[in-house]
Amino acid sequence: MSGRVLFEENDHKIVLFEELTPASAVQANQYLIVHKGEAMLLDPGGHKVFSQLQRDISRFFPPSQIKYIFLSHQDPDVVASINGWLLTTNAQALISRLWIRFLPHFGLDSQLENRVIPIEDRGMRVKLGDCELIILPAHFLHSPGNFQVYDPCSKTLFSGDLGASLGSPYVFVEDFDAHLRYMEPFHKRYMASRKVMNLWADMVSELDIEMIAPQHGAVFKGKGMVERFINWARELPCGVDLMDEGVYSIPGG
Ligand code: FE
Questions:
Q1: Which residues 6+ apart lie within 8 Å of 47 measured at CB?
Q2: How far, in Å, is the centroid of ligand 1 from the Cα of 218?
Q3: From the CA of 103, how far away is ligand 1's center (Å)?
Q4: Which chain residues have CB less than 5 Å from ligand 1, an ion?
Q5: Distance CA 23, CA 88 (A)
Q6: 75 alpha carbon – ligand 1 mean position (Å)
Q7: Nearest one of 80, 85, 84, 86 to 105, comparing CA atoms
């Protein structure tokens, strides 16, 4: 059984499911936001977590009544189970317009396609009851059509692959400097460039954030830790910044 309540106040709840991924697959977090009888599931993951995730969610909310399924981008650890989720709920799935026509390749039935809502590049807002969630653009961090969710009711930013760590043996980051070794190699290789990191940092600095919850690894909790992450991300050379002739050379035989 997994499911850790990260926030609970005034009929608003955030639940993290972090233990469902099989050992050979990259660890992935699934999150559930519940507000006054309505719920959003974020980045539900692949086939191997589908049944157990349904069972574990049912301890907190009837999975068949989920209203929105948010897909931060097109990767298999985010999207692969989408057909099962749309079959077993009446939910609408939200994903960047860039990826709409790729979803049938994950086995999405044609009669379910009309429940996938394209998100335009500028993002959008959706409501769970009277709580309005903001879907923020985060393109090229890492996917070209990429979004994050800001939940103002818990002051949580669900940051997708940004802030992800691989192999960190804890749920909350306690020591930011020690955490870098789990986080830095991934960001340098997957995130597109310092320019977009900078744009992102400026955008989210306008929000009141108490928690950053990435799709892999540990969660950043508290204003101090959130600020440290944003400041680190803002200046990180990554992606195309680090590509040169050394990388772009014909491999030897
Ligand atoms: Fe990804």
A1: 80, 81, 84
A2: 16
A3: 15
A4: 75, 161
A5: 26
A6: 5
A7: 80
In order along its 253 residues, the chain shows pLDDT tens digits of 789 999 999 899 999 998 878 878 889 999 999 999 999 999 999 988 999 999 999 999 999 999 999 999 999 999 999 999 999 999 999 999 999 999 999 999 999 999 999 999 999 999 999 999 999 999 999 999 999 999 999 999 999 999 999 999 999 999 999 999 999 999 999 999 999 999 999 999 999 999 999 999 999 999 999 999 999 999 999 999 999 998 999 998 7
Quote the ligand 1 centre to 36 CA distance (angstroms).
30
For domain 4-242, give the fold: Metallo-beta-lactamase; Chain A (3.60.15)
Spacing, Cα 148 to ligand 1 middle (Å): 12
- pTM of full prediction above 0.70: yes
The rounded Å distance from CA 137 to ligand 1 centre is 15
Ligand 1 centre to CA of 48 (Å) is 17
Q: Which two tokens stand for residue 39?
A: 């719920």
User: Cα separation of 183 and 152, whole Å?
Assistant: 26
Task: Report the alpha-carbon distance of residue 126 to residue 81 in Å, rounded.
Answer: 22
N- to C-terminal Cα separation, the chain:
50
* 216 Cα: distance to centroid of ligand 1 (angstroms): 9
Sequence spans of domains, the chain: 4-242
DSSP letters for 147-163 = EEEEETTTTEEEEETTT
